[in-house]
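Deliverable D4.2, example record:
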Amino acid sequence: MEIEKRFITAIILAAGESKRMGQSKLTLEWGKKSLLEENLDHFLDSGVDEITVVLGYQAAEMERLIGDRSVTIAINPAFSKGMGTSVVIGVNIMSPRTQGIMLALADQPSVDSATINKLIDAFNEQKKGIVVPVFQKKRGNPVIFDIKYRNELLSLKGDIGGRDIIGHHAKDVLEVPVENKGVLIDIDTPEDYRKLKPA
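Output generated by the structure prediction step:
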């Protein structure tokens, strides 16, 4: 029996102020690209059907880096109020065809397209409402939410992402073991960047 491929919208949260970095972390070099470009290109190479990038802090510079990539750009004027405000903006403008909402962090450049596709395959095959990557028993990002969680995502406030929703629906969570430690790693501080950036 052929597995039904559901329409997945990736919402990439790229609006934060990078306070712990002391400068805009998404513009930092990552190999031959910026950290933001590296992240976006993994999603563009994956099986997601639509990509929305939510910008806020230094949005004009981020737009310049995104260039002509085929993504939808949304601006969050309330970005200083936290990640939840960006999730709401992304969910509000996604395609009416969306069946799965993948929330992703823009500062996880090591999450490759193979890892993203493994989560999508699990979402299509297993019919659980929330799909979470797990590396060595630790949960990471990105996370896929079934469209039935749309209203709960729209009710997020402040600096809360999807973690509360995951906690409230433990029986509907599918943990997907992955080989990529990148699902646990985001780049928050100058030390993180020095340690992790490609040579």
